[in-house]
């Protein structure tokens, strides 16, 4: 894909405008879009200071999380069928490998389980990678009052905890996810 510098500049302006209208004067934005990896190349080209952080979760946990949410009409249609979810997960794994190999300085990949079990070490490593200073408040998301526009808006307001690590297990047989290949 060849995108002109003018198009990239316009994309950056539109993104900054959109974020400003939603978040006001926020200097940093976390975008948890499920399509981030699909647009990683143009996004990182248009926003030279941006980084992509990927938090990898157990595929079964992610599959259940996607399956149980109702998305806006016409969005994330793959999430209503377990086979489609698994295909989506494989595609995401492929995209992650593709972009992380080509732009390693702009990607930070961390495991959700590691983040939960050793949050300070994981968060410090992330902040170092994206060149932000350490702040102890990072260990207490329950105290954060910043705007959140995501399906997990309740979860991100809770203390760091392990409740989601095995939440899928009671549903494994019903959903057939325990014996499906996730990758």
Automatic annotation (TrEMBL):
<dbReference type="InterPro" id="IPR027417">
    <property type="entry name" value="P-loop_NTPase"/>
</dbReference>
<keyword id="KW-0808">Transferase</keyword>
<dbReference type="InterPro" id="IPR026634">
    <property type="entry name" value="TPST-like"/>
</dbReference>
<dbReference type="GO" id="GO:0008476">
    <property type="term" value="F:protein-tyrosine sulfotransferase activity"/>
</dbReference>
<protein>
    <submittedName>
        <fullName>TPR repeat domain protein</fullName>
    </submittedName>
</protein>
<dbReference type="Pfam" id="PF13469">
    <property type="entry name" value="Sulfotransfer_3"/>
</dbReference>
